[in-house]
Write a structure and sequence with these properties.
Elements lengths: L1 E7 L8 H4 L2 E8 L6 E10 L2 H7 L9 E2 L3 E9 L11 E4 L9 H4 L7 H9 L9 E3 L2 E5 L9 E5 L3 E4 L5 H21 L7 E5 L3 H12 L4 E6 L2 H9 L4 E4 L5 H8 L4 E6 L4 H9 L1 E9 L13 H6 L3 E4 L7 H13 L9 E5 L4 H9 L5 E5 L1
Parallel strand pairs: 4-8, 11-12, 11-14, 12-13, 14-15, 15-16, 17-18
Antiparallel strand pairs: 1-2, 1-4, 2-7, 3-5, 3-9, 3-18, 5-6, 6-10, 7-8
Helix pairs in contact: 5-6, 5-11
């Protein structure tokens, strides 16, 4: 079938993207689903820094590629061997398909699925196939999803069924921002009620982590960002303290205000500078969790003696150490009960043709989450 999609033909375009147009809205051919695959009519797709990092070349991926990995949609048709979904079902897409058989999957850690990671790196579906084509040549998939399009053929292992009551624009945010941010607090850090927390970087993932810390019963939640506007939103969402990361004394100010630092600090900006700040404001014996994704060549300098003498813990968190089939229903239920104000993260709705302008706004730090309605 012929569909409209946002195709990245080359990485590294110069901003502003509204002028350079790294994403070209083109007609491409989409194959029907093969065995174990599903055709999804995309309803909504969020603009995330993980997409932006492919556009600017900080996370190299094969091109041409249809971007978009945070999305929700409706089942249009089923491939062979898919028996647990029906046409018309609403689903959230998960950007690491889990094979269910590798060592991480067997250990209950599907976010680290090895075949899923290999397929994502290669720009294929979990099966190794490519279902997108243009002028007789293959177009790569982004993280097994490629949601900046009217339709997507994806692995059944990339989907979680939800009930049809949740608005699909809100549902889309659960597939990346919420899974990653809330999961970092609940699954990776296992933060207990009454602990103190800080979140460095208040994008969609960072504010989701803040919501998770509030829902988990943190006694104090410190929000840190360069944007005073985002700090204001953080206060509305439950932050007890806010600090602008642009201050040269930010680390000292936070340590003084928290009497030596917080129990758990979450780095969500994807930069070494943010990670250094998060580490500095973690108290002795505390835990620093990072879910940010800086360029792969960047390194974080660490004084090894501190790990021993202060019994520090530094942990990475990918997709919030999630089990999507377990965690998505839980987080959606928390949202319905008013415990996770995910709808407050929505900055704007856009059309597919406005996508380059949307990435300009994201790059400039002016928005939290914009959602393409398709």
């Amino acid at each position: 079938m012929k569909i409209r999609a946002a195709v990245l033909n080359k990485m590294g375009a110069a901003a502003p993207y509204a002028q350079s147009k790294p994403l070209s809205i083109e007609e491409v051919t989409l194959d029907p689903p093969g065995p174990g695959e599903v055709l999804i009519k995309i309803a909504a797709a969020g603009l995330c820094h993980s997409d932006l990092s492919v556009i600017d070349g900080n996370r190299p991926r094969p091109t041409p590629m249809v971007l978009g990995h945070e999305a929700a949609g409706i089942v249009e048709s089923l491939g062979a061997d898919v028996h647990d979904l029906s046409v018309g079902d609403h689903v959230i897409m998960v950007f690491v398909p889990s094979c269910g058989h590798c060592v991480p999957c067997a250990e209950g850690r599907p976010a680290l699925c090895e075949p899923g990671a290999a397929a994502n790196t290669a720009g294929t579906l979990l099966s190794g196939g490519r279902r997108l084509h243009r002028n007789g040549t293959d177009v790569h998939h982004h993280l097994g999803v490629s949601a900046f399009a009217e339709y997507a053929t994806v692995s059944r292992r990339s989907l979680v069924k939800i009930d049809n009551e949740l608005p699909l624009d809100e549902a889309a945010l659960f597939g990346c921002a919420v899974l990653t941010g809330v999961g970092a607090v609940i699954n990776t850090a296992k933060m207990p009620a009454g602990a103190t927390a800080a979140v460095v970087g208040l994008g969609g993932v960072g504010l989701s982590a803040l919501l998770g810390a509030v829902a988990a019963g943190a006694s104090r939640v410190v929000a840190v960002d360069l944007s005073d506007e985002k700090l204001g939103l953080a206060r509305q969402l439950g932050a007890t303290d806010t600090f602008n990361a642009g201050s040269s004394d930010a680390a000292d100010e936070i340590r003084q205000a928290t009497k030596g630092g917080v129990d758990f600090a979450f780095e969500m900006a994807g930069s070494v500078r943010a990670m250094e700040l998060a580490y500095k404001i973690t108290r002795r014996g505390g835990t620093t969790v990072t879910a940010g994704l800086p360029p792969p060549t960047h390194t974080f300098p660490l004084l090894q003696v501190n790990l021993v003498a202060e019994e520090r813990t530094v942990k990475g968190s990918y997709i919030g150490t999630c089990v999507p089939t377990r965690d998505l229903p839980r987080y959606i239920e928390l949202y319905r009960r008013g415990k996770l104000s995910v709808d407050r993260l929505m900055s704007a709705h856009l059309k597919l043709d406005e996508i380059n302008l949307g990435f300009d706004r994201l790059s400039e730090g002016k928005v939290v989450r914009q959602v393409i309605l398709i």
